Amino acid sequence: MPELNLNRRAQALVRQLVAAKENLGIEVTTLPEGSLLVDAGINVPGSLEAGRLLAEICLGGLGRVELVPLSFGDFWLPGVQVTVQQPALACIASQYAGWALKGEGFFALASGPARALAAKEEVFQTLGYRERHPVGVLVLETRNIPPGPVIRKVAKDCGIEPEHLFLLVAPTASLAGSVQIAARVVETGLHKLMELGYDLALVTAAFGTCPLAPIAVSDLEAMGRTNDGVLYGGRCFYTVADPGEEIVRLLPRVPSLASRDYGTPFLKLLERYGDFYRIDPLLFSPAEVIINNTATGKVHRAGRVNPELLKESLLGVAGD
After folding, report:
1. DSSP per-residue letters across 90-112
2. Is there a domain that residue 320 lies in?
3. In the chain, how many domains are there?
C-alpha cells in the first residue's frame, strides 16, 4: 500500500484541536518527557466537538465525522456519521485500538496513526503497511495519564523522540470518549471482514452511522453502553470491487447478530463471563451492513438494528 503519512495528517488536526482548546473544554500540557498531552475528559469536561476531532485524528485524517440525529422508529438519539477514504488504512492502520500499552500499573489500548510507526501488531503485516515520520500521534481511552516509562517506551517503539509524541486521552465515560468510540462503527465492520479472511484492499469506500451512548457514571457502565450503540444501532455501507463476489459468502457472518452472544446488553455479558475476552469475538461488529459491489453492480444486505435493546441500554427503558 502507498504511504499516505497518516501521522502528518493527524498532526495537523491536533494543531486545530489545540488552537481551539478554550472552546472545547480540553487541557493541553507538556509532560516531563516533553510529550504533548491533550486531556479531553480526565480532569476537564471535554465536549462533543472535541470528541468529533478526536475521532478524525484516530482516522489519520482520512475520514470525516459529523454529529447527526438518528431515528429508531418511535425515538431518536444523537449519533455520528462517518465517511472514510482509504478504509483499510484509515480504520485498521490508524483507528483500530490494537496496541496495548502497559507498565507501572498503567494500561490502555492505543489507537491512532503512531501505531503504524511501531507496527507491532499483526494487522500491519496483513496490510503490508508501515510509516516513517518524526512525529507520532496516539489516542488513548483511559482515565489515567501514562507514566514516564510507558511514554519513553512508546516513543522508542515508534522510532521518535518523546518530545515528538502527541498523546490524546479521554475516558470511556466522557463526552469526547463517547463520540470517538461511536465513530469506530465503520472500523468494527472492516475488522470483522479482515478476521473472516476478506481482502480489505477490495474495499474502496465506507460510510456508517452509530448512536451516541449517554454518559455513564462509571467507565465500566460506559463500556456497556458504547458497545451496545455499535452492536445494536450501528449501520455501515461499504463499496467493494469484488468481481468474484467473495463478499456474498462472508456477509451473513459480518453483522453482530451472527454471534451466539447477540441480544444481551454488553454489560450483562461482562457480568455473565467475568472476562471481556470470553465474549464471542463475532459479536464486535455493526448491527446492519450493506455492500455495494461496484464490480457487479449488485447490492447485498445483512443484519438489522435492534431498537428495543437500544432503548433498554441507552435510554433505560425496559422492553415490553
Report:
1. IIIIIIS--EEEEETTEEEEEES
2. no
3. 1
235-240 and 288-293 as β-strands: parallel, antiparallel, unpaired?
parallel
168 beta partners: 38, 139
Backbone CA torsion sign across 294, 131, 153, 179: negative
DSSP, collapsed to helix, strand or coil, labels residue 30 as strand
pLDDT at 319: 55
Q: Angle at Cα 302 formed by Cα 84 and Cα 222, nearest 5°?
A: 65
Tell whether 101 is covered by a domain.
yes
Domain that holds residue 266: 6-315
Which pLDDT band, with edges at 50, 70 and 90, does 318 fall under? confident
- How many whole angstroms separate alpha carbon 226 and alpha carbon 302? 22
- In one-letter notation, the amino acid at residue 52 is R
Question: 3-state SS of the chain: helix, strand, coil percent to 5?
Answer: 40, 25, 35
Whether the model pTM is above 0.90: yes
Q: For residue 89, what is its C-alpha cell? A: 488504512
Cα gap 37→282, rounded to integer Å: 35
Residue 203: give its domain's CATH number: 3.30.1030.10
How many C-beta atoms lie closer than 10 Å to residue 156's C-beta? 12
- Mean residue pLDDT of the chain comes to 96
In the Cβ-directed half-sphere of 159, how many Cα atoms lie within 13 Å? 11
Q: Phi and psi at residue 176, in whole multiples of 5°?
A: -65, -40
